[in-house]
UniProtKB/TrEMBL annotation:
GO terms for molecular function: L-histidine N(alpha)-methyltransferase activity. InterPro entries: EgtD (IPR035094), EgtD_Methyltrsf_superfamily (IPR051128), MeTrfase_dom (IPR019257), MeTrfase_EgtD-like (IPR017804), SAM-dependent_MTases_sf (IPR029063). It comes from the Bacteria. This is Histidine-specific methyltransferase EgtD. Residues 1-24 are annotated as: Disordered. Residues 11-21 have a biased composition (Polar residues).
Length: 328
């Protein structure tokens, strides 16, 4: 979301950074992406208020194993993870969403100093922060509205404090490998000496299981993906006919990743404001990809960014991994 003001929530401080200050505007990104020979739209724009709500529904679907598997890993290893993070922790969570898994951490951390959830959807973030403040009245909470892929500043009081960055949900997989290393390098700078990173990532596995997780039988992921076209219609004066587009998810063996598209079902012309775009039948817009890793691959990536693995936890089926890393 692109709201310039965040309200103070009682004794909860908030920091707002408008997305226009951090990245080119939504309109510019859409026009640029749809003008490419291979059309694309940035996945961060999937997460408006409705998109965030739909994603929360996706996380509850039977096909979507990442959320429940990561939560199970966190539950089974909460004491060990809490020990790695340590006491008096400043926890910064990237892409906090509804902060469901965060509660598993908060319940196993002693004398935590502060929690700073970071999310692109301001309404979603503020509602979640308000609920957390109610449930954890002694916790100092500083919600930050920001696109963490574009960089953001912590409140002044934490600028030199060692922090633990919590980055769940395999969101790192949405980035190309080189950009993922770049983001990990920025996280390393934010951690400061003595800080660390707790990160969840999806492990490579059977393509059929991966595709099912991103193309569920109930069609919730399709609604989530196509909601981006609704957002363009609403905010940018677009005229996408959603009935003429469909959701597509495929697995790329070459890149070890799921690729998510919106596919035109007919030859058509669409306008966004004054701009006009032609689509041929079967032409696709790339909206998201999700890389899958081996533990060795991810450890190597993190090492390029200055991190060393302390410990890694997985589930019994080796579907997902949660790794704690410290600065080298």
């Amino acid at each position: 979301m692109r709201q310039s003001d965040c309200l103070d929530l009682g004794n909860t401080e908030s920091q707002s950074q408008t997305l226009e200050e951090q990245t080119p505007g939504f309109r510019d990104d859409v026009i640029r992406g749809l003008s490419k020979r291979e059309k694309e739209l940035h996945c961060k724009y999937l997460y408006d208020e409705k998109g965030s709500q739909l994603f929360d529904q996706i996380c509850e679907l039977p096909e979507y194993y990442p959320t429940r598997t990561e939560a199970s890993i966190m539950q089974q290893n909460a004491d060990a993870i809490g020990h790695r993070i340590g006491n008096d922790a400043v926890l910064v969570e990237y892409g906090s969403g509804s902060s469901t898994k965060t509660r598993l951490l908060l319940d196993h951390l002693d004398d935590q100093r502060a929690y700073l959830p970071v999310d692109i959807s301001d309404e979603h973030l503020m509602r979640t922060a308000d609920q957390l403040r109610s449930d954890y009245p002694g916790l100092d909470i500083h919600p930050i509205v920001a696109d963490f892929t574009a960089g953001f500043d912590l409140p002044d009081e934490f600028e030199t404090t060692p922090v633990t960055v919590y980055f769940p949900g395999s969101t790192i997989g949405n980035l190309r490998t080189d950009l993922a290393v770049d983001l990990l390098s920025e996280i390393a700078k934010q951690c400061h000496s003595g800080g660390g990173l707790l990160i969840g990532f999806d492990l490579d596995k059977c393509p059929d299981r991966l595709v099912a997780a991103y193309d569920d039988a109930a069609g919730v992921t399709a609604k989530f993906n196509l909601n981006l076209l609704s957002r363009i219609n609403r905010e940018l004066d677009g005229d996408f006919d959603l009935d003429q587009f469909k959701h597509v998810a495929i697995y790329s063996e070459e890149h070890s990743r799921i690729e998510i598209y919106i596919e035109s079902q007919t030859d058509q012309i669409v306008t966004v404001g004054d701009a006009e775009f032609s689509f041929s039948e079967g032409e696709r817009i790339l909206t998201e990809h999700s890389h899958k890793y081996s533990i060795d691959q991810f450890e190597s990536m993190a090492a390029q960014a200055g991190f060393a693995m302390d410990e890694c936890w997985t589930d019994d089926e080796n579907l997902f991994a949660v790794m704690h890393l410290s600065l080298q």
